[in-house]
């Protein structure tokens, strides 16, 4: 059996503050006996100048049986909004983590944007 991996599908890639991010996750090529636990997280983190900061805003257990689709819907806070500046970036992600009995955990991120305005910008 090859290395386990996860698939994250989002219903939308841009979400308003106080909106909800939703989608589906699946573990693939998985031997459930090799996994201690799985979890779905929604979090933001910073990168750039200074110390990295992050906060998990939601976490729930994941069904790690191969191919089983699990849906999620998470109400988001109002801040921080996504930002891609020169010195600082703020990223929002849905993260799936498979806690393996042996070896390193398997972590998959799917980024989405928390945007103050969901307008396309085309007037």
- Secondary-structure element series: EEEEEEEEE
CATH architecture: Sandwich
Task: Note the beta-strand portion.
Answer: over 45%
Q: Kindly, what is the distance between the CA atoms of the first and last residues, rounded to a whole number of angstroms?
A: 52 Å
Number of helices in the DSSP assignment: 0
Globally, the shape reads globular
Mean pLDDT: 92
Label the structural class: mainly beta
> How many strand elements?
9
- Roughly how many Å is the radius of gyration? 16 Å
Low-confidence blocks of residues: none
Percent of residues in helical segments? under 10%
Which fold name corresponds to the CATH topology?
Answer: Immunoglobulin-like
Q: How many structurally independent domains?
A: 1
The biggest beta sheet reads: 6 strands, mixed
Walkthrough of the structure:
It is a single chain. The chain has 123 residues and is mainly beta. Strand 4 and strand 5 form a beta hairpin. Strands 2, 4, 5, 7, 8 and 9 form a 6-stranded mixed β-sheet that branches. A 3-stranded antiparallel β-sheet has the order 1-3-6, with no helix packed on it. The model has no long low-confidence stretch (mean pLDDT 92). It has a single domain, classed as Immunoglobulin-like (Sandwich), CATH 2.60.40.640. The chain has no helices and 9 strands. The chain is 0% helix and 56% strand.
